[in-house]
Input
Amino acid sequence: MIKYILLGYLKYQPMTGYDLKQSLDHSVSHFWHAHHSQIYTTLRKLDNDGLVSSEIIPQQGSPDRRLYTITAAGQQEMESWINQPMTHISLLKEEYLVRLFFSAERNPQEVIAELILQIKLHEEKLQVFYQLQHHLENNARKEHPEFERDIHFWLFTLKMGLSFEEMYIQWLNNTLHEIQNM
Amino acid sequence: MIKYILLGYLKYQPMTGYDLKQSLDHSVSHFWHAHHSQIYTTLRKLDNDGLVSSEIIPQQGSPDRRLYTITAAGQQEMESWINQPMTHISLLKEEYLVRLFFSAERNPQEVIAELILQIKLHEEKLQVFYQLQHHLENNARKEHPEFERDIHFWLFTLKMGLSFEEMYIQWLNNTLHEIQNM
DNA sequence: ACCTCCATGTAAACTGTTACATGATTCA
DNA sequence: TGAATCATGTAACAGTTTACATGGAGGT
Output
């Protein structure tokens, strides 16, 4: 998957591994994250496979930057992937739910403390989503009118992150109250 | 993670790899799934580490069953894990969102067709959740009153799966309408 | 005749995380 | 003085998926 995210980004413009990491952290990371180590190694593999090309840009004082550019083969690979419709749904992996599932015998006060911490963390995340949404709807749209259509699609995915957090927080609060009244 | 799921189940009763796979598929699989190959290999590792013990139950006509029982060390390992509160939140990995994020240049009709298919798949999943909830709230509760408290916790996690699917379907429908009106 | 269920496993490949490793610049 | 940012990489490990492999029993 990370392969297609990198190709998708490089379709917009040539970028370095570092740039890509920054960009991902502020966009797709909410539904697909990656460490820099994985990004650098995947870029090398894409280069070996001819899906991207790279050129070294010398720097003084810091390591040379390696700028990656998508090739025609890379564009085709990306398009072939995105045009092949997805016929399954993704499966969640939610560690907290595993913990709650097996929490019946735990000390209720500790379960409640953990719930309250989860609520706090998810509320912080929700705030980040609101800020991102504000930024996309205002700044980005005005500064890059040529990306109007793309921004629509980015906002769709952001809206999903937002709805997820809102739903999750509500569910956590309901669960908290039910446990307190048990 | 799968290690703790297996230990958590084995705390209720001794089980075989096959039993565990069946049980997981009808419970935690909605927030943490595993293939049988991973379950069998993890059980072997738990056995080697002394967290479970196993005995072979001969069968006629089919392979012997290997019944796993949690050990005192296994119980302690599980309790130590569950009592150490989680101080982060899980990160989503949603392939469909990656696809939508990069879909601005796709043929709108294909994007719409994919959206409609996703709606159908998520609605089917939602129905499964409703049935599971009905089963837990009625049959399971009456047949196993000794698990009353555990069932409460299982229902919490089920409620989350249900809310997630309801939210997701609503988001998909909104996105569909917005794309149709673009 | 074919499918599903029971029941177990191994091997290879792939994906992802954590830790190690370096070093200049800028800001508080 | 210490932290953050820029900038890249490798290595070891852990976790996960896919494919291969077998074979009887019971139902349609």
About this structure: The first strand of chain B starts at residue 15 and ends at 16.
